[in-house]
Design brief:
By secondary structure, this protein is α+β, with helices and mostly antiparallel strands. It is built from 3 helices and 3 strands; from the N terminus they run βααββα.
């Protein structure tokens, strides 16, 4: 399990960082932990699964 920052997730999904933060607030992407500054860190496997699901139901 590798952890991804908000910026890395946004780049991977092709969305803005604000969208990733909203997905986390809405519990569509669950942060595994927070870094020292309180920023969310996401499991790369969870991010990949989210992307696959989003593409199946109509895109990001």
């Amino acid at each position: 399990m590798a952890l991804m920052t908000i910026e890395q997730v946004a780049d991977f999904l092709g969305v803005k960082e604000e969208r990733v933060k909203r997905l986390e607030r809405e519990h569509l992407l669950i942060a595994k932990e927070n870094d020292g500054s309180g920023n969310a860190l996401f499991d790369d496997g969870d991010v990949q699964k989210y992307k696959e699901l989003a593409e199946r139901i109509g895109g990001l």
